[in-house]
Amino acid sequence: xxxxxxxxxxxxxxxxxxxxxxxxxxxxxxxxxxxxxxxxxxxxxxxxxxxxxxxxxxxxxxxxxxxxxxxxxxxxxxxxxxxxxxxxxxxxxxxxxxxxxxxxxxxxxxxxxxxxxxxxxxxxxxxxxxxxxxxxxxxxxxxxxxxxxxxxxxxxxxxxxxxxxxxxxxxxxxxxxxxxxxxxxxxxxxxxxxxxxxxxxxxxxxxxxxxxxxxxxxxxxxxxxxxxxxxxxxxxxxxxxxxxxxxxxxxxxxxxxxxxxxxxxxxxxxxxxxxxxxxxxxxxxxxxxxxxxxxxxxxxxxxxxxxxxxxxxxxxxxxxxxxxxxxxxxxxxxxxxxxxxxxxxxxxxxxxxxxxxxxxxxxxxxxxxxxxxxxxxxxxxxxxxxxxxxxxxxxxxxxxxxxxxxxxxxxxxxxxxxxxxxxxxxxxxxxxxxxxxxxxxxxxxxxxxxxxxxxxxxxxxxxxxxxxxxxxxxx
Length: 475
Prior knowledge:
Layout: E1 10-19, E2 22-32, H1 34-48, H2 58-75, E3 79-86, H3 89-96, H4 98-113, E4 121-126, E5 129-134, H5 140-155, E6 158-160, E7 163-165, E8 169-176, H6 183-199, E9 205-207, H7 210-231, E10 235-244, E11 250-261, E12 265-267, H8 269-279, H9 281-302, E13 308-312, H10 315-319, H11 323-334, E14 341-346, H12 347-352, H13 354-367, E15 370-376, H14 383-388, E16 393-396, H15 398-402, H16 408-423, E17 427-431, H17 436-444, E18 449-451, E19 459-460, H18 461-474
Parallel strand pairs: 8-9, 11-13, 13-14, 14-15, 15-16, 16-17, 17-18
Antiparallel strand pairs: 1-2, 3-5, 3-8, 4-5, 6-7, 10-11, 10-18, 10-19, 11-12
Helix pairs in contact: 3-4, 7-8, 8-9, 9-11
C-alpha cells in the first residue's frame, strides 16, 4: 500500500545479514510491478473478453463449454446452450450508424445480464450474435422458459440517441447430450436452430432437431448446385402471358426462373430463390434473369410481337450498389426500350425499405422503366407511400382471386383495390386467374389485366412465341 492509500503489486526479496556473528537481520528489497500486472491483465482481457460489451469472447466461451461438458459427462448432468442474435440489427446500423448499433448491443447486454445466474456464461461471439451457457438444467422446459424471458426482455424498447428502438431476439437452443456429444457439434446445431427461429419470423426460440440438420444439408446441396448452374448457364426462363381483360390482347410476359438439376431434379423456385436470397446469389441470379428476359423481349419485337417483359426483383437486389447501372446497361446491351421492361417488387418487401425505395423508383420512372407492386393487398403499405413510389401497376394477390366467385367480401376487396389504383392512374392486374367465372367477376370489378392458368401456364420461350402468334392471328 502506498502512502496515498493506493494498492500496488510488488515483488519482495529478503537476504539474511550476518553482523558480528549474528544472523538476526534481513535486507529486504521491493520492486513495484503494478504496471506489469496491469499489462498482464490487459492482455488477459484482450484474449478472453469482448471489448465492447465486457462479455466473454468466443475463446473463453469455448473453454467454459468444454468444462461444462466434462462435468456433465462425469455426473450425468444436462446443460443447455442458447444462441441468439438481434432481429433488425442491420437496419439500426444502416439507418443510424454503427455508433448507434454499438449502443444498442451494450443496452441489450445490460438488460439480459439482469436475469442471469452466477453459474451462467454469457458471451458475444461476434457482431450481434451471442451465446449463453446454462449449466445444471434439469429439463428442456427450463431452457425454454429462460429463452422466453430473454425474448420478452428483447421486446421492450431500447433508447438509443433519444430514439426508441424495437429489436427482438431469435434464439436457438441445444441440449447436452440430446443434440451432440462434443462442443463443435453443439455449436453447429445451435447455429442451425437459431437461423430456423429467424427464418420463421424472428422474436422466438427454436429447439434443434434432426430435421433441421437434414434441411441444412439439403440447403447446402442446393446452394452448391445453384452456384454451378449459374456459372454454366443451366437455368432457363419460362414466360407467362399477361392479357388485357377487355380485348384479350397479350400486353406482356412475366419471366420466371426455372431450374432442372441432373442430381436434384426439378428444383421449385420456392426452394432455390430463398436460398439465393440468403447466400447473396440473388444478385447473380437476378442479373442473369434480367439479361435473358430483355434479350428475349427484344427478339419478340423483331419478330413482330410488341409486348413488355416483367421481371421480379427482390429488395436486396434493388438496394445493392450499382443495381440501377446494371439495369440501364442490360437495356442498352439488349437494345430494348425502357418502357418495355417492368420491374415487379412485392408489397411487403418494398415497405421494409420504404424511404430508401422512393428515390430509386423515381429514378427508374424517369428512365421510362415500368414498376409494378406484386402481391398487393397482403402487405401493409400506406396510400401515401403508394403515391410516392411512382409505380405504374399493382397486382392483386391470387388469394383474393381464388375467393372472388364464392365470397362477397373478396369482391369488395378487389373493387376497393381497383378503385384505389384507378384513382392514382395505375393499371390493375389480377394474378392466379384459373376459371372463366373468376375472370367474369374481375371484369365486373373493372380490373384491367389478368394472368393465370386460365389462359396459359408459364412456358419456355419457343412456346411463348407460339402463343403470341396464335393470339395475334386470332385477334
